[in-house]
């Protein structure tokens, strides 16, 4: 392969020969610099045109590598590493200083065409390689990397120095633009805050508050991005970061007002900011935190739940928009919201612990898992149950936040499922059809069926406050199956949305088959928090059974910025040993799911028509003082009556009591003692699970 190189005057110059077998330059063309009348035409080796008017032509290759701090447009051939198969290839590179771009083409003749590749140099890191004296890398802020090789050390130094000068120039330019934008944004906020509090145009005008909040969020986002670029650039200039070092979002530059800090109060009324006095005897004696022991709930005390807390009222959100805007203006992109107290009016009328129970609203599908005739059938049934559990976990279309459970809070409930409604050992295709159209039995009917019903019991406990960790456990003793899970909820501010990561795992145990299924949970997002907030699930989750070798991979797809469907989910069940896909699923997790099986058959499940079995709970007067519904009764009643200020006061009283109890424990040196769950490794396990009571069987299939 020959590259003919012409000098500026049209004279033929040296020829650069490329040996395809060795991938090396057999001859080196001397450096060619365009004359003053030439802009940036390039030869086959390397050429430079200074953007400074004082630059002059250089004669000879030695002067061609002379260091200069002028920004120059450089072009020439370099070897670019593509992959293990293709290896190194010669490509024609162009450094565009004005645009801050490094572009490459197949050859010089194709330079007038679209580049094969382009890197933005602002925030990039240019690093000479330790492998040899010819290689260097260009690491763009986007994460893309070019691994390049010059013909010798001098040529590498020339490219590296030109690229570094260009990178520094454009990175500093971004900083200047950021500084200018920050000044304008500060001026905007100052002008808004200087407006009178009332009148035709006031500082509390909702449009102006919207402008203030969004401009603050935008600047915070840009500042964080620029800061990460600076850290990356500085770390490579000064050497690699120490092992284990990570670059994370910064803490807010603007201090949060006291009423937004953990344990303090939302800004509603002056008198609400006064501390609440909680008597010590009420604080410690009522909760009995230091002496509580596990309680056996009598199933006869439980009655079918008649509580209906549908969240369909947008009025409170609209009325309190100015509070949301003010809160958003104080938050920083990526900020952990664990210690931020959110306004009461956005709360759902139930605890997070009860929300976990609502994921069990189809107990017939849960019990049907163990009825599967084969390991394949049982895995498919678990996936069907798993995907149908999220729809009922949401109360209404509007995204509201459940109560943050206080440490020691618990929730008990159960479900009674007629045995006739549970799919037997038949193919998975008919399992959901058997339960799709049934209607829940009345209280009288349930009291009559007795042994004809399966019972599923559920208990949840808040085992930790910081970090906020919940443990929950459900079992059907008759069918020798149970599920144990622990979840750490980590929430972050994402600009115009809030993201919640569910850290932890669950384990479903089928003792009749000696099988355990480990599973994870998707992330949740509250979108459009300034208008009509709605919930979206996202991320990849997995289900695995080590004994049988079956696994499932499920993806909850977030909606793209343009086009696309909401709430889309896809997944597949696979036999790992044979790498055979035995079932595929697609659809929406809150609407219709389509299952396609290995035999070619399909089944649609309409979640909106899937019957919901109501849970059974004890009346409030029979509940433990720290059971969720009794604990949050005053807050829930106030929210039902739209008494936001009163709900805030009751909520603050609970939080103050929690802080008082924690202070007593610290002073007494008494560690926190959980009631139902025991710490094992990084997880939490129910104190009396079925697998410790009922021996696991190992049936032969």
TrEMBL record:
SMART domains: PH (SM00233)
Positions with biased composition (Low complexity): 47-60
Presence of the UniProt keyword Disulfide bond in the record: no
Localization terms from the record: Golgi apparatus, trans-Golgi network membrane; Late endosome membrane
UniProt keyword annotations, A-Z: Acetylation, Endosome, Golgi apparatus, Lipid transport, Lipid-binding, Membrane, Phosphoprotein, Transport
GO molecular function, one term: sterol binding
Any single biological process term in GO: lipid transport
Annotated catalysed reactions: a 1,2-diacyl-sn-glycero-3-phospho-(1D-myo-inositol 4-phosphate)(out) + a 1,2-diacyl-sn-glycero-3-phospho-L-serine(in) = a 1,2-diacyl-sn-glycero-3-phospho-(1D-myo-inositol 4-phosphate)(in) + a 1,2-diacyl-sn-glycero-3-phospho-L-serine(out)
Domain of life the protein comes from: Eukaryota
Pfam families, per database record: Oxysterol_BP, PH
Cellular component GO terms, alphabetical: cytosol; Golgi apparatus; late endosome membrane
Keyword Phosphoprotein: yes
Entries under PROSITE patterns matching the protein: OSBP, PH_DOMAIN
Family: Belongs to the OSBP family.
Subunit structure and binding partners: Heterodimer with OSBPL9.
Function: Plays a role in regulating ADIPOQ and FABP4 levels in differentiating adipocytes and is also involved in regulation of adipocyte triglyceride storage. Weakly binds 25-hydroxycholesterol. Interacts with OSBPL9 to function as lipid transfer proteins.
Full protein name: Oxysterol-binding protein
Source species: Rhinolophus ferrumequinum (Greater horseshoe bat)
């Amino acid at each position: 392969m020959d590259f003919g190189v012409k000098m500026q005057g049209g004279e033929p110059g040296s020829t650069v020969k490329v040996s395809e077998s060795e991938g090396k330059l057999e001859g080196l063309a001397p450096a060619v610099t365009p004359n003053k009348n030439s802009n940036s035409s390039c030869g086959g080796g390397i050429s430079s045109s200074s953007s400074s008017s004082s630059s002059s032509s250089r004669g000879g290759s030695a002067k061609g590598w002379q260091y200069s701090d002028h920004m120059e447009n450089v072009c020439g051939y370099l070897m670019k590493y593509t992959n293990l198969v293709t290896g190194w290839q010669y490509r024609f590179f162009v450094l565009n200083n004005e645009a801050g771009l490094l572009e490459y083409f197949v050859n010089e003749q194709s330079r007038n065409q679209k580049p094969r590749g382009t890197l933005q140099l602002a925030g990039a890191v240019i690093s000479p390689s330790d492998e040899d004296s010819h290689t260097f890398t260009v690491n763009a802020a986007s994460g893309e990397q070019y691994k390049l090789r010059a013909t010798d050390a001098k040529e590498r130094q020339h490219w590296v120095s030109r690229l570094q000068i260009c990178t520094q120039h454009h990175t500093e330019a971004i900083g200047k633009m950021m500084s200018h934008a920050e000044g304008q944004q500060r001026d905007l906020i100052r002008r808004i805050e200087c407006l009178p509090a009332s009148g035709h145009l006031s500082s509390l005008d909702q449009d102006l508050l919207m402008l203030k909040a969004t401009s603050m969020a935008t600047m915070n986002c840009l500042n964080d991005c620029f800061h990460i670029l600076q850290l990356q650039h500085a770390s490579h200039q000064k050497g690699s970061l120490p092992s284990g070092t990570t670059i994370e979002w910064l803490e807010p530059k603007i201090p949060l007002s006291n009423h937004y800090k953990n344990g303090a109060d939302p800004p509603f009324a002056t008198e609400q900011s006064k501390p609440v006095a909680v008597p010590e005897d009420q604080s410690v004696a009522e909760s009995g935190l230091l002496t509580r022991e596990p309680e056996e709930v009598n199933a006869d005390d439980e009655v079918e739940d008649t509580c209906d807390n549908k969240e369909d009222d947008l009025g409170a959100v609209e009325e309190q928009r100015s509070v949301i805007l003010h809160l958003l203006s104080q938050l920083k992109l990526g900020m952990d919201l664990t210690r931020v107290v959110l306004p009461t009016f956005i709360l759902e009328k139930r605890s997070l612990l009860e929300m976990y129970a609502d994921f069990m609203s189809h107990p017939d599908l849960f019990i049907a898992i163990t009825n599967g005739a084969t390991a394949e059938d049982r895995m498919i049934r678990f996936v069907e149950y798993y995907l149908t559990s999220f729809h009922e976990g949401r109360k209404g279309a509007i995204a509201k936040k459940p109560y943050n459970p206080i440490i020691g809070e618990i929730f008990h409930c159960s479900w009674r499922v007629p045995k006739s409604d549970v799919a037997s050992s038949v193919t998975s295709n008919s399992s959901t059809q058997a339960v799709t159209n049934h209607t829940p039995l009345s209280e009288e009917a349930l009291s009559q069926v007795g042994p004809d019903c399966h019972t599923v019991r559920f208990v949840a406990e808040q085992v930790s406050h910081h970090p906020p960790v919940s443990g929950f456990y459900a079992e059907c003793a008759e069918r020798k199956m149970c599920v144990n899970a622990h979840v750490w909820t980590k929430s972050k501010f994402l600009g115009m949305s809030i993201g919640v990561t569910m850290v932890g795992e669950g384990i479903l145990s089928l003792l009749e088959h000696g099988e355990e299924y480990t599973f994870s949970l998707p992330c949740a997002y509250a979108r459009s928090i300034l208008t009509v907030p709605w919930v979206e699930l996202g991320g990849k989750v997995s289900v695995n059974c080590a004994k049988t070798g079956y696994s499932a991979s499920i993806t909850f797809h977030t909606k793209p910025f343009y086009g696309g469907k909401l709430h889309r989910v896809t997944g597949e069940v696979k036999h790992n040993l044979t790498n055979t896909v035995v079932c595929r699923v697609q659809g929406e997790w809150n609407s219709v799911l389509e299952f396609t099986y290995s035999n070619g058959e399909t089944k649609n499940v309409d979640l909106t028509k899937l019957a919901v079995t109501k849970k059974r709970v004890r009346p409030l007067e029979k509940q433990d003082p720290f059971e969720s519904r009794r604990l949050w009764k005053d807050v829930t009643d106030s929210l039902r009556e739209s008494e936001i200020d009163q709900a805030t006061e009751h909520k603050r009283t609970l939080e103050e009591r929690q802080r008082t109890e924690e202070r007593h424990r610290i002073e007494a040196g008494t560690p926190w003692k959980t009631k139902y769950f025991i710490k094992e490794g990084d997880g939490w396990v129910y104190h009396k699970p079925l697998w410790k009571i009922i021996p696991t069987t190992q049936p032969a299939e």
